[in-house]
Fold:
Amino acid sequence: MAYMTIKKKRKLTNRSDVSFGLIENVIVDYFSINQIDAVEERAGIYSWGYLPKNLNRNAEYFMNLKGMKSSVEGNFGIRYSGDLERESTIAASDVDALESDFEYYRNTLIAFSAPLYIGISNKLKTRLLTHRRQLNIYMDNPSTYHEGLTGCNSDSPEESSYFGYRVGQSMKDYGIGVDNLFVKCVYNDDYDATKRIEKVINRIVAPTYGMR
Structure:
């Protein structure tokens, strides 16, 4: 059984050989956003996660959709539609009380939190470097607008641009810096198999900032 321990002065990068019964040697690489240069240039699936540098009361909203559109049908086929907004269930005082336990909170959140975004690439290092660049572009120029990615190739510059817009917009809204992100990579040189797996996993996990 493998686990990840993160200390203040230790780099996030960690390779874990995980064994669960009949599943052996599942290789997972972890990188902070500033360590992406160390990602292998191979095919595989990646996910972005939240790496808190400090206590942020808006983390709940950043890691979950704050709002969504809804449509229901009533009597006589009359439809009702509109925006729904998430209501917080965490008191500000509960977050503030974690100050003395921040390292424990941080490590546990990294271990248990769902991914923010899941993607695929034939060249993981190149794709993730492009993600980082597009995210920084949006953070520097938040007026950038993106139409969405319906029908777009999920391993393309357009996908990276969408990632930068979708995640960057939320980070701006909730006061979260770019260095609060990390990446997990699972390598697989069978790109066709990787595409099949990523399609299903995205629909099972439904990451917060997945493609619309």
Remarks:
- Residues 14-205 form one domain.
- Residues 1-11 have pLDDT under 50 and may be disordered.
- The chain has six helices and seven strands.
